[in-house]
Write a structure and sequence with these properties.
30% helix; two-stranded antiparallel sheet; elongated; 323 residues; Arc Repressor Mutant, subunit A; two-stranded antiparallel ribbon
């Protein structure tokens, strides 16, 4: 008959006091907190719709003291997550009632963002609950000495105990409705029409024919510019105006096709803009001297718009001045 080994333990010791060790899954090793801890509800820790980043961010926000800035930039400096991920997590907490952000205008005109964190979503309290104040100890009156046994006891009223007001929450600040920025007034006046195309002062047929030929031939030099027949007839008078003001066909073609934008989506509108914006000034009229005339007296040539006598003959004969 074999001897039983009494030194071997019957089973492994349980790491959790008072609980049976589970056969699989997580094993909790819990220590009681006495300071620096935050109570988080399982409705947040085990939320099935929040992301893991949102749950951790809500836990972090609930552990912060009142007045701590929890904007996107401070949180980005605190954690390695990007601004986009932190912004998305904050929006998740707002949707599920764990966070509320409102914009309020201060008396000095500055607009600030006020953030409220809720440890229990669905709470009707729209303002943070302040920390409870320490209640002062009540002052007890001095004990009254008992009267002599020979006399009847006289009930002496005890001085009233000063009532200590209980710590109550300060009046809730009135929510300031943020004033929306003024919207720009919608224009009531109609949009001014575009400037008209220049028209030649003397629309000669040869000028219009040359303008039509230039516009029709533009696509051979610049494939990006393709005009319809209607566009060519519409733009031809403007090109004729350039010819009338002394511009050569080569100069017109250079002005219309140089430095084209890429891509050129509306060729006709682009050429219309350039024909108006780059229109050269009218040609300055040249001085035309008076024609030559022969003097009726000395037959000497002189310049005058009408025939007659020259200046010398007129000066010699005063009677010619009155004639």
């Amino acid at each position: 008959m074999d001897t039983q080994q009494v030194s071997a333990p019957s089973r492994a010791p349980s790491p959790v006091r008072g609980d049976a060790t589970p056969s699989s899954g997580v094993v909790h090793i819990n220590s009681r907190h006495t300071s620096h801890f935050t109570v988080v509800g399982n409705h947040l820790a085990q939320h099935r719709e929040l992301s893991l980043l949102a749950i951790g961010l809500a836990t972090h926000i609930q552990s912060l003291p009142a007045g701590t800035k929890i904007g996107i930039k401070p949180l980005t400096e605190r954690f390695p997550d990007s601004e986009a991920r932190i912004a998305a997590a904050l929006r998740e907490l707002e949707v599920h009632g764990y966070l509320r952000r409102t914009r309020e205008r201060l008396p000095n005109g500055r607009v600030v963002t006020r953030t409220c964190s809720y440890n229990q979503p669905g709470s009707t309290d729209a303002h943070p609950v302040p920390a409870p104040r320490r209640r002062p100890k009540p002052i007890h009156p001095a004990p009254v000495a008992a009267p002599a046994p020979a006399l009847a006891p006289v009930a002496t009223p005890a001085p009233p105990t000063p009532e200590v007001p209980e710590a109550s929450a300060p009046p809730a600040p009135t929510a300031v409705t943020p004033t929306p920025p003024p919207h720009p007034a919608s224009p009531t006046a109609p949009k001014p029409p575009p400037p008209p195309l220049p028209q030649p002062a003397n629309p000669l047929p040869q000028l219009l024919h040359a303008a039509t030929a230039l516009l029709t031939d533009l696509h051979r030099h610049t494939p990006h510019i393709t005009l319809t027949e209607r566009d060519i007839h519409h733009l031809a008078p403007a090109v004729a105006t350039w010819f009338e003001r002394g511009t050569t066909p080569a100069a017109v073609r250079q002005a219309l096709t140089s430095d084209l934008p890429q891509p050129l989506r509306f060729p006709a509108k682009f050429l219309r803009h350039r024909l108006i914006a780059l229109l050269p000034p009218p040609a300055t009229p040249t001085y035309q001297p008076a024609p030559l005339q022969n003097c009726d007296r000395c037959d000497r040539a002189f310049r005058s718009p009408t025939p007659g006598h020259c200046h010398d003959c007129t000066a010699d004969e005063p009677h010619l001045l009155s004639a």
